[in-house]
Design a protein that fits this description.
The complex is a heterodimer.
Chain A (H helix, E strand, L loop, with lengths): L5 H16 L35 H37 L1 H16 L2 H12 L3 H28 L2 H8 L4 H37 L11 H8 L8 H28 L28 E12 L2 E13 L4 E5 L6 H9 L6 E10 L2 E2 L5 H7 L4 E4 L3 H4 L6 H10 L6 H14 L5 H4 L9 H12 L6 E5 L7 H18 L2 E6 L2 H7 L2 E6 L2 E7 H6 L4 H9 L46 E4 L2 E3 L4 H6 L9
Chain B lengths: L1 H26 L4 H6 L8 H11 L5 H13 L13 H36 L4 H15 L2 H15 L15 H35 L2 H8 L4 H31 L1 H6 L5 H11 L2 H29 L1 H4 L2
Helix pairs in contact in B: 1-4, 1-13, 5-6, 5-8, 5-10, 6-8, 7-8, 8-10, 9-10, 10-13, 12-13
Classes of the chains: A alpha/beta, B mainly alpha.
The complex binds iron/sulfur cluster.
Iron/sulfur cluster binds next to loops of chain A.
InterPro entries (chain B): BPD_transp_1_N, MetI-like, MetI-like_sf
Subcellular location (chain B): Cell membrane
Protein name (chain B): ABC transporter permease
Chain lengths: 616, 315
């Protein structure tokens, strides 16, 4: 649990302290009537003036705080203790107890709270003594629910199961492990109940159904001052102010408690665009359809900027397929997103350039970039379930892509969408177009995604792990489909994946990324037969071999961008490491025309026989 | 299919609520008839108590009473008031439309302010507008409705004399006055509902905007307005509708204070009077009607939910 914000805590503390100390402050009697001085303004004896029968307003205000907070505290405590006990029992013992407590709580929750309070007041008659059980009853179900949910979530966790297996009694387990675990949510519920009880108490008293006159209560004071508010508004405004400030600080405290118990990440920063800067003088491959040059992506964190993509360069020609491979965390997806200007809000391109034909995408304004996205430049995402909008029909989502770029009527766009679905191999396309994403299989959804991406015949398609979520047969079909589409339209394809076997099938050239950098880049045949970087070699060995022998996983994980080693980023996991590797980051060197590597020992790997490659 | 099941669950809930209301009155310790008649500690006359016991059928077995009670309910008979012998259902249904009108206007005002402002604040998250709106919503949520109502009366009726301080005029008698009288109570209710919708919309939009399908929409080149309306707001509305339904339900019994402040003769006022007079049949009738409406509202919202979120329909 994090620290609770001190400001609301202090505010509530001051109010509570005042309520506690009223009897000792030497204030005038809050119920002493002084009719001749009714509605008198502020004076030294009566700092805030006197009310409609001459009672001291300040004194009544503070005594009111006392009664209000007492009622709130007692009712919330009773509700908390009983409710939590019932919820824990229901969750832990299950069966009949579960049924009785939880269902009963659900039924009570069916009544609007104020209505429930009124009903009970009818039965028991008004008064402060009734108020406490009434409010306790109103808040009870909330605690039952919270405690019950908390127990259910920890009940099957390993340490509880383990204790049960060790023969620890149910009661002991409940007290020792479950209660501390549900403490946070119960605390939040408690602060909510307190704040709400203050409001409800004042409301009931205002109606004359709560605290009985002449005892001081804010609700009663407001109710009584209404009749004279046209002449003297102050006796009305003081209790209004007191009530509002109290509820405000209690609500703020609720938020603070909630924030402390349940922290939700740091709010992201909102800068997206690179400040227009001079384009670096860029030599790029003639005829490239897309060229990424020295792209660096930064994420601003409280501890400073981290760079999950650093100085990455590659290019694709029309009709060519470039594969970007690497484990998760290598920065390959971020590179793809940066090209389309679709980076998450926290990330921003920091340096470099992306050239699409003559245009530079990183410095293009959003409107112009939008006209390219989904038209000439399209992207397919990894998880088709979350990448499709669950509330719109498949056909509608494709129509949207078409109509974003071409002024077609809804009707003809729909026909085109159906044709596209048929083109990507969805049987009964006219009917499927009317389906929602959750009604399709994984393979169908990915085909629909592809149909959406190719709707406007892009010249370049970036596919981010398009086959990861699919089984092998469907995977092969999707790859075949992509190859066909490429052949049909002569489009360039950037294929981002962590699966090397797929790369062998589809790619012309391969970029291997590790910890945000390109570590090797070359033609697919060379990469597979004579890798010049130990990471590439390790990736090849980690793929399931065709002869059925066991793949060799790479031990360790990709370092986080904020914890990069000083020298070669792969050194901690590299079996060929030398001391020299850790001295300085190795540069990306050209080993052969069109084949680069970031390993200082590449000359040794080059001399090894084919198929063994680096450190065989 | 799921529609039928929801309706079934709703009916069971209504039955449970009716039974609880019935039992609550019978299970209070002591003789209900005596409690009803004792006012201010004076013991009632034995003959009067006996008469009331007979009228309420309290001498019969609880099972008989229960059956009679439900037979009455099914034929729309909620009994007669103890204070003036008027038919409970007649009273209730005369006042129900007024309360519903109030809630409907309040809901409309809240939806039209809370949702757009919540969307705007979320899109400008962390900016000055967001912070200002968050502050106002927090403040508005902290001022109890009867304080808002009383202050509105003070300012707009007493000081500025722009609007009537309260009361009710049938629409047919005087449309302008009718609207003027509904306006302030409705705005008062909205002052607590709008910030809730605002906060929920803001949170939901912030959540939805980072989802993958929004990125897909942008990748398709959809214009920003389209992305925001069709992919962000449309999906964010699902939780907002749930919250709206919950709060509208609470309002069904929760307009008590507002009706009292504005002297608006709605259902809640009837309830408060009945509670004060210990008029059990009336209390029972009002609570029952409100509960039925509450359940019906939840059912409607479930159906709306099914339209908003096609995934629910499968269940
Ligand atoms: S530079 Fe050294 S540590 Fe890095 S990959 Fe090459 S051999 Fe391994």
């Amino acid at each position: 649990m994090r620290r609770i914000n001190p400001i609301p805590l202090a505010a509530v503390g001051i109010i509570a302290l005042l309520a506690l100390l009223v009897p000792y402050l030497g204030l005038p009697d809050p119920v002493r009537i002084d009719v001749p001085n009714r509605l008198a303004g502020p004076s030294w004896q009566h700092l805030l003036g006197q009310d409609e029968v001459g009672r001291d307003i300040l004194s009544r205000l503070l005594w009111g705080a006392r009664s209000s907070l007492t009622v709130a505290l007692l009712s919330a405590t009773i509700a908390c203790v009983i409710g939590t006990a019932l919820g824990v029992m229901g969750g832990f013992l299950g069966g009949v107890v579960d049924l009785l407590t939880i269902r009963a709580a659900d039924i009570v929750l069916c009544f609007p709270p104020l209505l429930l309070a009124l009903l009970v007041v009818t039965l028991l008659g008004p008064g402060a003594a009734t108020l406490i059980p009434v409010l306790a009853l109103v808040y009870l179900p909330g605690f039952v629910r919270v405690a019950y949910a908390g127990v259910l979530s920890v009940r099957h966790q390993e340490y509880v199961e383990a204790q049960r297996a060790l023969g620890v009694g149910k009661l002991r387990i409940m007290l020792r492990t479950v209660l501390p675990n549900i403490g946070g949510p119960v605390l939040v519920q408690f602060s909510l109940a307190m704040a709400s009880a203050v409001v409800l108490e004042s409301g009931l008293s205002f109606l004359g159904l709560g605290v009985v006159p002449p005892s001081p209560s804010w609700g009663l004071m407001i109710g009584a001052a209404r009749s004279t508010m046209a002449q003297t508004p102050l006796p009305l405004l003081w209790p209004c102010l007191a009530l509002t400030l109290t509820v405000l600080s209690m609500n703020a405290l609720c938020d603070a408690v909630r924030a402390a118990v349940d922290p939700h990440g740091v709010p992201p920063r909102q800068r997206r665009w690179l400040l227009p800067a001079l384009l670096p003088g860029l030599p790029f491959r003639a005829g490239a359809s897309l060229a990424v040059r020295d792209l660096t992506v930064a994420i601003d964190t409280p501890a400073g900027a981290v760079r999950p993509v650093r100085s990455v360069s590659w290019s694709v020609a029309p009709g060519e397929t470039l594969a970007i491979v690497g484990e998760s965390g290598s920065g390959k997806s971020l590179t793809g997103l940066a090209v389309l200007g679709l980076l998450p809000l926290v990330a921003r391109p920091e340096e470099g350039a992306v050239l699409f034909g003559e245009r530079e995408l990183l410095r293009m304004d959003e409107a112009a970039l939008r006209r390219l996205r989904g038209a000439e430049l399209a992207m397919i995402f990894q998880d088709p379930m979350s990448s499709l909008n669950p509330v719109h029909r498949i056909g509608t989502q494709i129509v949207e892509a078409i109509r974003a770029h071409r002024p077609l009527s809804r009707r003809s766009a729909w026909q085109e969408a159906v044709a596209l679905l048929a083109r990507v191999g969805i049987p009964d396309a006219a009917r499927r177009a009317r389906s929602f994403p959750h009604e399709l299989s994984g393979g169908m959804r990915q085909r629909a995604m592809i149909a959406m991406a190719i709707a406007n015949r892009p010249t370049l398609l970036i596919a981010d792990e398009p086959t990861t979520a699919l089984d092998v047969t469907i995977q092969a079909q999707v790859l075949e489909l992509l190859a066909e589409l490429k052949a049909e339209n002569g489009m360039g394809l950037v294929f981002i994946t962590h699966a090397l076997p797929v790369v062998a099938e589809i790619a012309d050239r391969v970029v291997v990324m590790y910890a945000g950098e390109v570590v090797e880049h070359g033609p697919v045949a060379e990469i597979f037969t004579r890798p010049l970087h130990p990471y590439t070699a390790a990736l090849l060995r980690s793929a399931p071999p065709e002869d059925g022998s066991l793949p060799q996983a790479i031990p360790g994980t990709v370092p986080l961008p904020q914890h990069l080693p000083a020298g070669c980023a792969f050194a901690p996991r590299c079996v060929s490491r030398r001391d020299a590797c850790e001295a300085a980051p190795p540069p990306l060197e050209q080993a052969a025309p069109g084949h680069d590597t970031r390993c200082i020992r590449w000359r040794e790997w080059q001399r090894l026989p084919v198929t063994q490659g680096a450190e065989a | 299919m799921w529609v039928l099941r929801r309706i079934g669950v709703a009916l069971v809930l209504v039955w449970i609520v009716a039974s609880v209301v019935f039992l609550a009155i019978r299970l209070v310790p002591g003789d209900p008839a005596e409690i009803m008649l004792s006012q201010g500690g004076v013991s009632p006359d034995a003959a009067v108590v006996a008469e009331l016991r007979d009228q309420l059928g309290l001498d019969r077995s609880i099972w008989d009473q229960y059956r009679a009670n439900f037979q009455g309910l099914l034929s729309g008979d909620l009994g007669v008031s103890l204070t003036d012998q008027a038919s409970v259902s007649g009273q209730v249904f005369a006042r129900l439309p007024r309360t519903l009108e109030l809630i409907a206007v309040a809901a409309l005002v809240s939806v039209l302010t809370g949702i757009p402002l919540g969307l705007l604040a979320a899109l400008r998250r962390g900016g000055w507008f967001d912070r200002l709106a968050m502050g106002l919503a927090g403040l508005s949520l902290s001022v109890p409705v009867f304080v808002v109502g009383t202050l509105l009366v003070l300012v707009f009726a007493q000081w500025l004399a722009l609007l009537p301080a309260g009361g009710f005029t049938p629409f047919r008698t005087d449309p302008t006055r009718h609207v003027a009288q509904v306006l302030m109570p409705a705005i008062t209710i909205a002052s607590s509902l709008a910030p809730v919708l605002f906060g929920m919309t803001r949170a939901a939009v912030i959540d939805v905007i980072t989802r993958d399908h929004v990125r897909t929409a942008r990748a398709k080149g959809v214009a920003p307005a389209g992305v925001v309306l069709r992919h962000v707001l449309r999906n964010a509305l699902i939780p907002v509708v749930t919250v709206l339904a919950l709060h509208l339900g609470t309002l069904l019994g929760g307009t008590v204070l507002v009706e009292y402040v504005f002297n608006y003769p709605g259902l809640s006022g009837l309830l408060v009077d009945a509670v004060n007079a210990r008029d059990y049949p009336m209390v029972q009738g009002v609570v029952l009607v409100i509960s039925v409406l509450f359940v019906a509202l939840n059912l409607t919202m479930d159906l709306v939910y099914g339209v908003l979120d096609p995934r629910v329909r499968r269940a």
